[in-house]
Design brief:
Shape: globular
Radius of gyration: 19 Å
CATH superfamily: Glycosidases
Oligomer: single chain
Number of domains: 1
Low-confidence stretches: 1-19
Number of helices: 11
Distance between the termini: 34 Å
CATH architecture: Alpha-Beta Barrel
CATH topology: TIM Barrel
Mean pLDDT: 91
Order of helices and strands: HHEHEHEEEHEHHEHEHEEEHEH
Helix content: 25-40%
Strand order of the largest sheet: 1-2-3-6-7-8-9-12
């Protein structure tokens, strides 16, 4: 029988059910680091300032290099996750609507197995120097496998490399539209923390059902619920009614122990979606 939140709580899923309700500020992570998203204005916030804005002490460091310079800026935080993908910024030639040509900066993901292995080793090395580094973070893993950039055994190898430091856990992005047991079966044993995201804001209304589907696939693995400020498919901020719906669920799920925490994406979007960001900040402060 699929393991729903109700059966999970009644059936002795000790790792989750034993968790006591906490304040939201104790369970939250912020995606730090900047990127170039079409239609999004540059941010005024620097490294670690998103966590400060939301009143949180944990960060997912994304989109920019893993190095000591960054971690020196993040050392005041309680925990930091480092990506195992490598990001590079490059220029490309574009044609503007008026026909003029120009150079544009874009972010490229170096998603070869070799680059991922090198970056994972870099994370392990940095974790040895910075005790607040507690994990590695793998974004869009099923896309890498689908595109032939990584196979399941290589994913398991990455996990073994990362967890050679027993303090480190491998966090893996899972979208609700990817909740297909057959697709996850070859690699789920090496997923330590499920970072669950709803890509289309309109689908947030299905969150209770999707949480049950996630639990049926991943069992008692910790689930960290991703919370966007931006509805990327809609090229807008997450509509306020749907934003509030999700955050009411975050508080509920955390209270009952069915999630281990949540993540906000992120610092780079605060300026563009300040209404959403301020509302989330206030909600966290009062819960």
């Amino acid at each position: 029988m699929p393991l729903t939140r109700r059966t999970m709580m009644a059936g002795g899923a000790a790792t989750l059910a034993a968790a006591k309700p906490r304040r939201l500020r104790d369970a939250g992570w912020v995606w730090e680091g900047f990127t170039f998203d079409a239609g999004v204005t540059p941010t005024i916030f620097g490294v670690g300032q998103g966590a400060e804005f939301f009143g949180l002490k944990k960060a997912v460091w994304q989109f920019v290099p893993n190095n000591e310079l960054a971690l020196d800026h993040l050392k005041r935080l309680d925990e930091v996750l480092l990506h195992v993908l490598r990001y590079e910024y490059k220029y490309t030639r574009i044609v503007k609507p008026d026909g003029r040509k120009a150079d544009a900066l874009y972010m490229d993901v170096v998603a070869t197995a070799e680059a991922m292995t090198e970056e994972t080793r870099n994370v392990v090395g940095l974790a040895a120097k910075y005790p607040n580094v507690t994990g590695g973070f793998f974004d869009d893993v099923l896309l890498s496998i689908r595109d032939g950039k990584l196979n399941p055994e290589q994913f398991h190898d990455l996990h073994r490399t990362l967890t050679s430091n027993r303090r480190l856990k491998l966090w893996t992005v899972v979208y609700t539209h990817e909740l297909d047991a057959a697709r996850w079966a070859p690699i789920k044993d090496s997923v330590d923390v499920v970072n669950l995201w709803v890509w289309n804001a309109k689908d947030l209304v299905n969150l209770d059902h999707d949480m049950d589907r996630c639990r049926a696939i991943f069992g008692n693995k910790p689930v960290n619920l991703g919370c966007y400020l931006r509805d990327y498919p809609g090229h807008r901020g997450v509509p306020m009614d749907l934003l509030k719906f999700q955050w009411e669920r975050v508080a509920k799920y955390l209270g009952e122990g069915s999630i281990s925490g949540y993540s906000i994406l992120g610092t780079t979007l605060i300026d563009e979606h300040i209404e959403q960001a301020r509302w989330v900040r206030d909600f966290i402060a009062h819960h």
